[in-house]
Design a protein that fits this description.
This protein is α+β, with helices and mostly antiparallel strands and 689 residues long. Helix content is 30%, strand content 28%. It has 6 domains: 17-84 and 232-272, 2-Layer Sandwich (Nucleotidyltransferase, domain 5); 88-223, Rossmann fold (3-Layer(aba) Sandwich), CATH 3.40.50; 275-342 and 435-497, ATPase, nucleotide binding domain (Nucleotidyltransferase, domain 5), CATH 3.30.420.40; 351-433, no CATH class; 505-606, no CATH class; 623-688, no CATH class. It is built from 16 helices and 37 strands. Helix 2 packs across helix 7, helix 4 (153-165) packs across helix 5 and helix 10 crosses helix 12 (424-446).
């Protein structure tokens, strides 16, 4: 746009300023840019570069056609930490722990999860730190935080000498009951910084300031395991961006859905462990609010996996009990369930000859057979190409030309190994049905198994493969409504721009709620003061700060607790709300039982400006102008003559009837027979049976 220079009659071109969201996935890196002046959205996709994620980020920025100097804010979600833990390629860590507890991270909870419970050959995965790199120090706190054994300085020096001798690249300090009094841990950290300069130190009281030693120690060890890797990745990314003209910092989305500064992410990388998928949930809430839909089930199907989350009243369910592989991760996070079912999931035959799909994925390289990059095994994407649901004329993600012949050959080879009992199209439909069944089980787990009726919700489908399978998924589990938002293939990247900066704090105070109630105000006041100082340092004034208080509560004698938001209500109201919450979650309540407080939690938000909702153009062409072609598409064992629509050309209030295909950059929506859809004012596709 044009702007007049102050005090001058000369005109100059003022470049638009953009905010950019980047979602680094296992198969594609998605980028979304929003022009702050006009609300215009620009999207692109580039293949991910495993182990070289920064290369894909820079390639994607170049593909957007936006000069880095014109970017005012850059937010990214990353799977770097998750992949490093799963692939065991983190730093060499030394653990310093209370004498007698060096084996705690290996003993764990002495339990096995289904299906390992029924596998006689099951072997518990080894911790990321070998026993010879775990060192004991002499000290001991009691369960109330009092000192039983003072910290022995000589034992600390011996342990640090041993850590240096072991070549430690990071140090985790994990002491018993340190969440109540961190002085011993901090003293060890100070000694380590003097003895091992340049080696990052993670203290359990700073990473997870709450009880349950195994989960706290595991989370702290993983934080130390990731620190050198994430520090190098984020520092290198910022340095390379600055070299291209970008003048601001890089924000990273945390597992909780909020943003972190680079400094926080480098110090607490464990909080990024579920970073990428959180952006999609945030954006689904943003879209739901604009559309007047408050109860959602988000369905994010990408190339490698599928993530689902239940949202009540535009608030996603949250938890602090997660895991990566076999390792507990006790950080605040959006409560998502993940299954290994994506567009790249490989179809294969089990030893008994039964057809299986996933969790192994063709990933970004070599990718599905249809990509023509060396993949030969049939995937979910290949099955959809065979069925005609994905056309071969449009480049996938704007860059990959699909080879229908290669896809058909891969599925044909699998059909031959099955003995020819199924035709190629029948087998392709079977592959899709099995993938849908796996994803349905994930939705059942977060809804029906927790007392929620899926029929009360709207399924919000996004990700590169989500809209393609959404209606089949909805039919399978009984969800009557599906919403496919604009730019579904880049939806998580767009959601990163709707996130606020977020800080979480917790204080463990186990005891009867009525006895602890009077002390809670002082506890929250202390946490809020610290949070406000941090937000002020990050540039947020008082008007841009939001605080949310909550309590972890349980009946006395229970082992686990439920989180309940504390909105200033009196004690009696909180007790009633807990009984009701317990009954909703578990199907029963005990109003006569003593309610026990476990943790007081504070979530502090630094509110950032959100991009304006992009409205669908009102001056639209006729519906027929959006028709690309008609082609045969297989449903229910038979081909159907289907219209194929161009998503961006569909006018507002356009009505669609299945069977039909809607194509756009980055995603394809499959409208099944018996379903109808309408384009709303924001360009969302609203589908119903």
């Amino acid at each position: 746009m044009l702007g007049r220079a102050l005090g001058s009659t000369a005109y100059c071109i003022i470049a638009p300023m953009f905010i950019v969201g980047i979602d680094v996935g296992g198969t594609f890196t998605d980028l979304t840019a929003v022009d702050e002046g006009t609300g215009r959205v620009v999207v692109t996709k580039v293949p991910s570069r495993p182990h070289h994620e920064a290369d894909a980020v820079l390639t994607g920025l170049a593909a957007l056609g936006i000069a880095p100097r014109d970017v005012r804010r850059l937010v990214h979600g990353t799977t770097v930490g998750t992949n490093a833990v799963l692939e065991r390629r983190g730093a060499r860590v030394a653990i310093l722990t209370t004498a007698g507890f060096r084996d705690l991270i290996e003993i764990g909870r002495t339990k096995r999860n289904i299906p390992a419970l029924f596998v006689p050959t099951f072997v518990r995965p080894k911790p990321v730190v070998e026993r010879k790199h775990r060192f004991e120090v002499v000290e001991r706190l009691a369960a109330d935080g009092s000192v039983l054994v003072p910290l022995d300085v000589a034992s600390v020096e011996r342990a640090l000498d041993a850590a240096v001798g072991a070549g430690a690249e990071a140090i985790a300090v994990c002491l018993l009951h340190a969440y109540l009094d961190p002085q011993h841990e901090h003293a060890i950290a100070d000694a380590a910084k003097g003895r091992c300069p340049g080696v990052p130190v993670s203290c359990s009281a700073d990473v997870v300031a709450e009880y349950r030693e195994f989960e706290r120690f595991s989370t702290t060890v993983l934080n130390a395991y990731l620190q050198p890797l994430m520090d190098g990745y984020l520092a290198g990314l910022e340095e390379r961006l600055r070299a291209t003209g970008y003048a601001h910092g890089v924000l990273t989305v945390a597992s909780s859905g909020g943003m972190m500064t680079t400094e926080t992410a480098r110090r607490l990388p464990i909080k990024t462990i579920f970073s990428g998928p959180a952006g999609g949930v945030s954006q689904a809430c943003h879209v739901g609010g604009a559309c007047g839909v408050g109860d959602l089930i988000t369905y994010d199907m990408g190339g490698t996996s599928t993530d689902v989350c239940l949202v009540r009243g535009l608030t996603p369910l949250a938890t602090s009990e997660g895991s990566v592989g076999a390792f507990p991760v006790k950080v605040p996070q959006i409560d998502m369930h993940t299954v290994g079912a994506g567009g790249g999931s490989i179809a294969w035959l089990d030893v008994d000859g039964s057809l299986q799909v996933g969790p192994r994925s063709a990933g970004a390289a070599p990718g599905p057979a249809a990509y023509g990059q060396g993949g030969t095994e049939p995937t979910v994407t290949d099955a959809n190409v065979v069925l005609g649901r994905i056309g071969s004329t449009r480049r996938l993600g704007g860059s990959i030309a699909l080879d229908a012949a290669r896809a058909r050959r891969a599925v044909t080879d699998l059909a031959a190994r099955l003995g020819g009992v199924l035709g190629v199209e029948a087998l392709a439909e079977g592959i899709v049905r099995i993938a849908v069944a796996r994803m349905t089980s994930a939705i059942r787990e977060i809804s029906i198994q927790r007392g929620h009726d899926p029929r009360d919700f709207t399924l919000v489908a996004f990700g590169g493969a989500g809209p393609m399978h959404a209606l089949a998924l909805a039919e399978e589990i009984g969800i009557p409504r599906v919403l496919v938002p604009r730019h579904p293939g880049n939806f998580s990247a767009l959601g990163l721009l709707a996130s606020d900066v977020k800080h979480d704090d917790v204080r463990t105070r186990v005891g009867p709620l009525r006895e602890r109630w009077a002390a809670l105000e002082a506890i929250f006041a202390d946490m809020e003061a610290a949070a406000r100082r941090q937000l002020a340092l990050e540039g947020f004034g008082v008007q841009a700060q939001r605080m949310r208080r909550s309590l972890d509560l349980r009946y006395q004698g229970q082992a686990f607790e439920l989180n309940l938001e504390l909105d200033g209500a009196p004690l009696a109201t909180v007790e009633t709300a807990f009984h009701r919450h317990h009954e909703t979650t578990y199907g029963h309540a005990n109003p006569d039982a003593t309610i026990e407080l476990v943790n007081a939690r504070l979530t502090a938000h630094g509110v950032v400006p959100k991009p304006a909702a992009e409205r669908h153009p009102s001056a639209s062409p006729a519906l027929d102008d959006a028709l690309i072609e008609r082609r045969p598409v297989w449903f229910g064992g038979a081909p159907h003559d289907c219209p194929v629509w161009e998503r961006e050309r569909l006018p507002e209030r356009a009505m669609l009837a299945g069977p039909a295909i809607v194509e756009e950059f980055g995603a394809t929506t499959v409208v099944l027979p018996g379903w109808t859809g309408v384009v709303d004012a924001h360009g969302n596709l609203r589908l119903e049976r």
